[in-house]
Amino acid sequence: MESIRTVVYLSVCLSVMTSLCQGQRSADNHLPSAPDEPLMGLTTKDLAEALQGFLDEADSSVGLSVEKKASVIPRCDVGERCAMKHGPRIGRLCDCLRGTACNTFFLRCY
Q1: Which compartment or compartments is the protein found in (predicted)?
Q2: Cβ contacts of residue 77 below 8 Å, gap of 6+?
Q3: Which of 37, 40, 71, 88 is the Cys-Cys partner for 32 at CB 3.0 to 4.6 Å?
Q4: At 105, phi and psi to the nearest 5?
Q5: Are 76 and 97 within 8 A, CB to CB?
Q6: Vertex 93, ends 92 and 96: CA angle to 5°?
Q7: How buried is 82 (Cβ within 10 angstroms: 0-12 exposed, 13-18 middle, 19+ buried)?
Q8: pLDDT by position in tens, the chain (length 110)
Q9: Distance between CA atoms of 109 and 30, rounded to whole angstroms?
Q10: Left, alpha or beta for 40 (phi > 0: left; psi -120 to 50: alpha)?
């Protein structure tokens, strides 16, 4: 009985504190209002150009690792066809998401 009273008291105190402090925020936790205002000495355009240069360099160094590998089976959603029947054998087209399995009769993820 005493523990229930304590839990109720704490929940009431927390709800009152949350409702009182909900509208208050620190002045440091907001983004600058002007889009071209320098951030650490760089404008938005400078940051975008630096990011584009970095992404172009990363794309050239990645090369063939992004392409499809023979050992990797792609994922398929629920209801998609996940296998194909070749006579008595069943060939996998994709791997079903977690919590689903490939139904061997319908050949779909369920």
Answers
A1: Secreted
A2: 97, 109
A3: 37
A4: -85, -50
A5: yes
A6: 85
A7: buried
A8: 677 888 888 888 778 777 777 666 555 555 555 555 555 667 788 888 888 888 888 766 655 554 556 677 888 989 999 998 888 888 888 999 888 999 989 999 98
A9: 45
A10: left
